[in-house]
UniProtKB/TrEMBL annotation:
Its EC number is 3.1.1.85. One of its GO terms (cellular component) is membrane. Pfam families: Abhydrolase_1 (PF00561). It catalyses: 6-carboxyhexanoyl-[ACP] methyl ester + H2O = 6-carboxyhexanoyl-[ACP] + methanol + H(+). This is Pimeloyl-[acyl-carrier protein] methyl ester esterase. The lineage of its organism: Bacteria, Pseudomonadati, Pseudomonadota, Gammaproteobacteria, Alteromonadales. The active site is at residues 78, 201, 224. It comes from Neiella litorisoli.
Length: 244
């Protein structure tokens, strides 16, 4: 199943992050389905969905959009946040609001910009060719780093991922390319953006919140997967963001 649909209420579409699949949201959606009609999506090449030919956000969106609501709240976690930002640029009429969780307009660190060191992303690219499983395992460890419940978080993530088919190797490579290359820093958002960041996140530095201003909410004890480590707080944030 490439899209799980459940619940009643306003339409809410959820895009997962790199190396993951729709199963990552299972426990959170158990809460969200009481408030929203949730569409939980496997991105191209993940969770059994066919991969796209190129590392291109528009091509990925073209593969997904015919199956998704004409108008909705769009939530993107990590890599998924890049797709949500691009969708809002392309088709703002479909986007009630962008709900951006532990993501960024530009993932690599640059001059006057905090982010992932480019050398780290390059290492992931090189290691992916050697051993995809170990590369994803390392990525999981980095995601939970700093969280008080890191071991528990990683265990839960693994359990969720195993419920869906493994990611396509080409899609994994494409996803890393997108994380390395996409840059939306100079693009003014055409629709409302609400950001949820973890203060302990080692992939999306909390310093981003200073540039986002009032649009950002920071969870003090969360890392890169706040909806897993702090699901109640993440739900409260989402409900506030969509209350208007």
């Amino acid at each position: 199943m490439t899209i799980l649909r459940t619940g009643q209420g306003d339409e809410l579409v959820l895009f997962h992050g790199w190396g993951m699949n729709a199963g990552i949201f299972d426990s959170w959606v158990e809460q969200l389905q009481h408030h929203f009609r949730c569409h939980v999506v496997n991105l191209p090449g993940f969770g059994g969905r066919p991969a796209c030919s190129n590392p291109d956000l528009d091509e990925w969106l073209d593969a997904l959009m015919p199956e998704l609501p004409e108008r909705a709240y769009w939530l993107g976690w990590s890599l998924g946040g890049l797709l949500v930002q691009r969708l809002a640029q392309r088709q703002p009429e479909r986007v009630k609001a962008q709900l951006l969780v532990a993501t960024s307009p530009h993932f690599p660190a640059a001059e006057n910009w905090r982010g992932i060191q480019p050398s780290v992303l390059q290492q992931f690219t090189e290691q992916l060719h050697l051993n995809a499983d170990k590369t994803i395992e390392r990525f999981l460890a980095i995601q939970a780093m700093g969280s008080e419940t890191a071991k528990q978080d990683i265990r839960q993530i693994k359990q969720r991922l195993e419920q869906h088919p493994q990611a396509d190797s080409e899609a994994l490579q494409q996803g890393l390319t997108l994380l390395q290359q996409v840059d939306f820093r100079t693009i003014k958002s055409p629709t409302p953006q609400y950001w949820l960041l973890g203060r302990l996140d080692s992939l999306v530095p909390v310093a981003l919140a200073e540039q986002l201003g009032e649009a950002a909410t920071v969870l003090a004890k969360a890392s890169h997967a706040p909806f897993i480590s702090h699901p109640a707080e993440a739900t409260d944030w989402l409900l506030r963001a969509t209350a208007g």
